[in-house]
Amino acid sequence: MSFNQDYISHPVFGQVDYFNKKNHQQPNQHTPYYSVHNHHQTDAGKQKTLDPIVTGSSVIAIKYNGGIVMGTDMLCSYGSLARFNSVQRQKQVGTHTVIGVSGELSDFQSLSNTLDDLTTDDFCIDDGSKLSSQEIWNYIARLFYNSRNKGNPLWNTVVVAGNQNGKSFLGKVDLVGTCYQDDFIATGYGAHIALPLLRKEYDDNPNGLSQDQAVKLIQDCLRVLFYRDARSSKRIQVSVVDSNGVKISDPIELDTYNWHSGEAAVRTFQQVALGK
Amino acid sequence: MYRNQYDSEIVTFSPTGRIHQVEYAMEAVKQGGSGVALKSNKFAVVVSLKRSSSELGSYQKKLFVVDDHIGILISGLTADARVLCNYMRNESANYKYVYESDIRVERLVTKVADKSQVHTQRYGRRPYGVGLLVAGYDQLGAHIFQTCPSGNFYDYKAISIGSRSQSAKTYLEKNFEGFATCTLEQLILHGLRALRETIPNNDTGLNSKNVSIGVVGENYPFTLIEEEATLPYLNMLESDEPVEMQVN
């Protein structure tokens, strides 16, 4: 253009805006200059989980004779803040599989939607086939591995538990897609604190655990985690997967030690100072 | 000259409610040699009668391995069959990658049928001119499926397709009730007997050149039996008592 572009593009207050420029973002003398073609202004950018924000803590699970017991607490922390204290971190997938999820809550929600889509697609194809627990476990592993390859991982560790044709399945997937199966599994802090407890109980019962034993063991582990893991709570859910299908319990408040250790001091203070 | 107004493309119904292009495609399936598929509780078997275009040429292959647990027998346009076979191989390989398990036979057949159906409804397409007999074994047992150019598919205990397949069907209908408990060898022989019914009397009959057999079953990946390997079965067939002639 041959005319003075600078003049046109900076209408002075009160001047008629012949070129209808005022709604455009224009450089201004009084503010630092940014080109309208600046990358940061035209591109909204892409959101990735590069570190988790709202997180759930451990998942623990163990096989017993005839099924699997899995337990999680219901806390989702915002950093170290106990932000959401009644979030279900277990989810039934299909008819005989349950997953328990540690890590980023929003990625868990995204995973939930994906898995729901998967079972819905199966239903729509209408050939009566249903995914086995092992297939779901593998699918999650591939999904996670694929996401991490895009540099955008789903920041979770997932425990998959299922029971089909009388056989129990228990497997774990982490945020880079590493996966394995075992007879007992713990994620997060639980991998340090609960796993030795699970291992001991499992080894002490070479003929396998009963369901009651397993449920008690999982609750005991979650109690220890509540004492030792600062990102956990005593509000828990315990699910049982056996040949009858999946049963996720209602929230349970764990019985914990009564923290009344200060009472004696109070009593002494009252006696000494107040003469009661 | 008489000319059918409603058969030039796929998207037009005739006034009698038919889609002629699809029906023509179904006719294409009846060309080429016949094929028979049958199953027991543990095995699925396909037998095919191959044709050669001339004395000088080889016999046209009709059995294809899709995966370790699935094989197909084709009838109709071989070129179209290769496209579908390629698709099936891809789908089962994908499934294996994602789930680390074998795709269920019915799921794969459903996918092929869905793909075929698209070709019966979109302008500018033509239906596949091929029918498949899919033999497979999965966690639900042995399966035989037939697919059609129309997008239909059927689950069978035993079935035949191709030219003069009706005579094979008649044999199968008379004998299928015993198939469930057959041994593999008996099953193959039943298949060959059914296939023999489709050959005109003045023909050369079944020999190791024009017969191939596919077998799949429990702990038994899909295996082709061809050329000399078919001889033991063909010899057993020869020493058979002659099957009584059907009078229709």
UniProtKB/TrEMBL annotation, chain A:
> Whose protein is this, by species?
Tieghemostelium lacteum
InterPro entries associated with the record: Ntn_hydrolases_N, Proteasome_beta4, Proteasome_bsu_CS, Proteasome_sua/b, Proteasome_suB-type
GO biological processes: proteasomal protein catabolic process
> Where does the record place a coiled coil?
none
Record's family?
Belongs to the peptidase T1B family.
Against PANTHER family, the record matches this protein to: METALLOPROTEASE TLDD, PROTEASOME SUBUNIT BETA
Superkingdom per UniProt? Eukaryota
Its function, per the record, reads: Non-catalytic component of the proteasome.
Which cellular component terms (GO) are annotated to the entry? cytoplasm; nucleus; proteasome core complex, beta-subunit complex
Quote the subcellular location field of this record.
Cytoplasm; Nucleus
Question: What keywords would UniProt list here?
Answer: Cytoplasm, Nucleus, Proteasome
SUPFAM superfamilies for the chain: N-terminal nucleophile aminohydrolases (Ntn hydrolases)
Query: PROSITE patterns, from UniProt?
Result: PROTEASOME_BETA_1, PROTEASOME_BETA_2
Q: What is this protein called?
A: Proteasome subunit beta
Can you state the subunit structure given in the record?
A: The 26S proteasome consists of a 20S proteasome core and two 19S regulatory subunits. The 20S proteasome core is composed of 28 subunits that are arranged in four stacked rings, resulting in a barrel-shaped structure. The two end rings are each formed by seven alpha subunits, and the two central rings are each formed by seven beta subunits. The catalytic chamber with the active sites is on the inside of the barrel.
What would be one Pfam family of this protein?
Proteasome
From TrEMBL, chain B:
Proteasome alpha-type subunits domain segment(s): 6-28
Q: What is its main location?
A: cytoplasm
Q: What subcellular locations does the record give? A: Cytoplasm; Nucleus
Q: Name one GO biological process term.
A: proteasomal protein catabolic process
One of the Pfam families matching this protein, by short name: Proteasome
**InterPro entries for this protein:** Ntn_hydrolases_N, Proteasome_alpha, Proteasome_alpha-type, Proteasome_alpha1, Proteasome_asu_N, Proteasome_sua/b
Q: Which UniProt keywords apply?
A: Cytoplasm, Nucleus, Proteasome
Cross-referenced PROSITE patterns: PROTEASOME_ALPHA_1, PROTEASOME_ALPHA_2
Q: Name one GO cellular component term.
A: proteasome core complex, alpha-subunit complex
Keyword Cell membrane listed? The answer is: no
Q: How does it assemble?
A: The 26S proteasome consists of a 20S proteasome core and two 19S regulatory subunits.
Note the PANTHER family from the entry.
Answer: PROTEASOME SUBUNIT ALPHA/BETA
What family does the entry list?
A: Belongs to the peptidase T1A family.
Q: Provide the protein name.
A: Proteasome subunit alpha type
Task: Print the organism lineage.
Answer: Eukaryota, Amoebozoa, Evosea, Eumycetozoa, Dictyostelia
